[in-house]
Amino acid sequence: MAKDKSGFIIAAAFIGPGTVTTASLAGANFGFHLIWALIFSIFATIVLQDMAARLGVATGKGLSAGMKDMVSSPLLRGFFIALIVSAIGIGNAAYESGNLTGAAIGLDAFIAIGSGNWAMILGAISALLLWTGKHQWIESTLVYLVFIMAGVFLLTLLVAMPDIGAMLTQAFSPQLDVSSITTVLALIGTTIVPYNLFLHASLVAKASQGQDKTTAIKASRKQSAMAISMGGMITLIVVATAMMAFFQQAATMDAGNMGEQLKPVLGDKAQWFFALGLFAAGLTSAITAPLAAAYAVCGALNLSDDMRSKHFRAIWLAIIVCGVVVAGAGFKPLPAILFAQATNGLLLPIIAISLLIVMNKSNALGEFRNGLWSNLAGALVVSVVVGLGAYKLFGLIA
């Protein structure tokens, strides 16, 4: 019986270069005025991941198969298949470009050959690791590096002695306007990651085999809430360090000086350490995102999810190739990463609404179907995300 560590894997998965970059830009440009978006994101992530986990435990299947098999209408089933293939494919391709760009920025700080060239090299490394199937050990090492980086951010915050009063004042003065909406969507998109819903359901389904379902769900719920809250706290700390270094200061943040926020502790080595953390976060996510997409799409299309099957390999390879092409196209790195997170924020409502439908419609869920409070929380999450997406689209066409 496998030990369920899915909550911590999900938390580690959303702390990629997109999270570090987006949180840094949020703190540098808006201070604590957008903290409301981060708090909402953590709440929404816990709510949606709980639904995905319950689905996985109750059915013993991943979210793709669960969504598809729990509807009898061929039309609705076809919709779910098209949704999974398109939304997860597009979303993960966008995520992959951000992952590779973030890792490339980190490596380019050590050996300057251009982030586009590094993106191609990193794409090839990710593909090689996935092809051999021996990627778990390097993922573990890189995740440790990510959490070491988070520890340095926390130490920096404590040493710099932040103005708590100013932070609270800004936190209670929330901002939402044309200038901040992209960053708000990016904060949501980098925390509530659509592919993590599919990944979580599959991991819990495998880990809970042979266990009492009620016990497994309670354990998963407790672990996920703790791990995701921890991930949110790390994001909050990054926002705070960036705020102290750049908000309302003469200097503005760019790809070349993001590490300045760690200078109070690391001095001249700050940029190098930040680059190492960005590389670790990026490569970890560059492996996880295409892997999750392959599981999701294979489940939707009734294809083998054996890591050595040709269909499985073709899907994750296509995601990596798309990520490399976009990352190497010469876009400015920070806007490219921010755009990838905002894209996921816009795709999220489609997945969230579908998940809500399945959690209420399926007879196979039995006692694990959504209750009143789960539905109210889910409806709140969907309403806010849809509203923000509509606000963004209206701003583009107005």
From TrEMBL:
Entry's localization field: Membrane
Bilayer disposition of the protein: Multi-pass membrane protein
Sequence intervals crossing the membrane: 32-53, 74-95, 107-130, 142-161, 181-204, 225-247, 272-302, 314-331, 337-359, 371-394
GO terms for cellular component: plasma membrane
UniProt-recorded Gene Ontology molecular function terms: cadmium ion transmembrane transporter activity; manganese ion transmembrane transporter activity; symporter activity
BP-aspect Gene Ontology terms: iron ion transmembrane transport
Location (main, coarse): membrane
The keyword Lyase is annotated on this UniProt entry: no
InterPro entries: NRAMP_fam
Keyword set, alphabetical order: Membrane, Symport, Transmembrane, Transmembrane helix, Transport
Name assigned to this protein: Manganese transporter
Lineage: Bacteria, Pseudomonadati, Pseudomonadota, Gammaproteobacteria, Alteromonadales
Gene: mntH
